[in-house]
Specification:
Elements lengths: L1 E5 L4 E3 L3 H9 L7 E6 L7 E8 L5 E8 L4 E6 L2 H12 L12 E2 L7
Length: 111
């Protein structure tokens, strides 16, 4: 099941495209973080995409494909690109990744 959570604790189970768009559009200081995660009993690991609206009005986008070693980060000024990424990830597609230059930050999460 897909679950969307924001910084102020709003949780939406099985969020629709419009709900994801609204949550992204509502990011601001004090509610600057949005996470979409897959919560499936038969899938091991952590699968999520998250966005942070930074103080300089850029977006920090990260996703994790199951394991810490597969944790990537990028930044952009484009809310439209972030929305495309969130919706693509939610739909299980991967082509949205090509819109960004990614840094593997998995080593920051190693034990």
């Amino acid at each position: 099941m897909l679950i969307a959570t924001d910084e102020v604790g709003r949780v939406v189970k099985k969020p629709t495209k419009p709900a994801i768009g609204r949550m992204l559009a509502n990011l601001q200081r004090g509610n600057a973080h949005l996470v979409l995660e897959r919560a499936e009993e038969d899938i091991e690991g952590n699968w999520y995409i998250q966005v942070l609206l930074r103080d300089d009005n850029t977006y920090q986008l990260e996703f994790r494909d199951g394991a810490a070693a597969e944790h990537y980060q990028t930044r952009t000024i484009s809310e439209a690109k972030i929305l495309t990424a969130l919706l693509g990830w939610a739909a299980g597609r991967t082509e949205w990744r090509s819109d960004f230059m990614w840094n593997n930050i998995g080593s920051e999460f190693a034990d």
